[in-house]
Design brief:
It is built from 8 helices and 7 strands, in the order E-H-E-E-H-E-H-E-H-H-E-H-H-H-E. Strand 1, helix 1 and strand 2 form a beta-alpha-beta unit. Helix 1 packs across helix 8. It has one domain: Rossmann fold. It is globular. The chain is an alpha/beta fold.
Length: about 230
């Protein structure tokens, strides 16, 4: 029996691939995206998760949810001002994750197989240069995951996170196209290749299934061995 899944950040990259894959597996996907993408084979609502009132209006249209996947995120905004850029990243990556979870909590609690999966990053575990907003937001996602696992566990809602390494997405395309940067990144992984969306599919399916019914408040790293590599 398929799951009713709300998936944020579906306009491109991992969100789009994941939504299409889960749809093919028989699940019903409701996608949220800042821009409408008619290439997806599932229903998508145009919505900015950082805007609470806008998000609330859209999520009120959804009646049944078994799983929420908080995938929406940005590494940098188009804003040149450093303070405003930092605030926008936090609002999207952290606030958006909390808003979606908060607004869907009552609908999730009605499911007997409810779970939330938050997408974080290896940057939450080790930091990164010149991007304090992204590092801070993704680190905060790990804390939020533990907090919501405790709070929402009272309603039998499991909450876990996945920290991604370097995946081939529009967010990392600049680094991937730079021969020097790509070589540097490849050399710092045990599995010396960049992740692809399919490398994530199995873990997502597991975490939202009853096979993971005793797992909550945990973070799972999918990084090709980036964090474990001896340097």
């Amino acid at each position: 029996m398929g799951y009713n899944i709300v998936l944020t950040g579906t306009s491109s990259g991992i969100g789009s691939f994941l939504g299409n894959y889960l749809t093919e597996k028989g699940h019903k996907i409701i996608g949220l995206s800042r821009r409408k993408n008619i290439q997806n084979n599932f229903e998508t609502f145009k919505c900015d998760v950082s805007k609470f009132d806008q998000l609330k209006k859209i999520l009120n249209k959804i009646h049944k949810v078994d799983c929420l996947i908080n995938n929406a995120g940005i590494a940098k905004s188009d804003i040149k001002n450093e303070i405003k850029n930092f605030e926008k990243i936090i609002q999207t990556n952290l606030n958006g994750t909390y808003y979606s979870s908060y607004l869907l909590r009552e609908k999730l609690r009605k499911s007997n197989r409810a779970s939330i999966i938050n997408i974080s990053s290896v940057s939450a575990h080790q930091g990164a240069l010149a991007n304090p907003g992204y590092v801070s937001s993704k680190t905060a996602i790990l804390g939020l995951t533990r907090a919501l696992a405790n709070d929402y566990g009272l309603q039998n809602i499991r909450v876990n996170s996945i920290s991604l390494g370097y995946f081939k997405t529009p967010m990392t395309i600049k680094s991937n196209r730079s021969k020097k940067r790509k070589k540097e990144i490849d050399s710092n992984m045990i599995i010396s290749r960049w992740g692809e969306p399919k490398d994530l599919f199995g873990l997502v399916e597991y975490l939202m299934s009853q096979h993971a019914g005793y797992i909550t408040g945990q973070d799972f790293v999918v990084d090709g061995g980036w964090l474990a590599k001896s340097r």
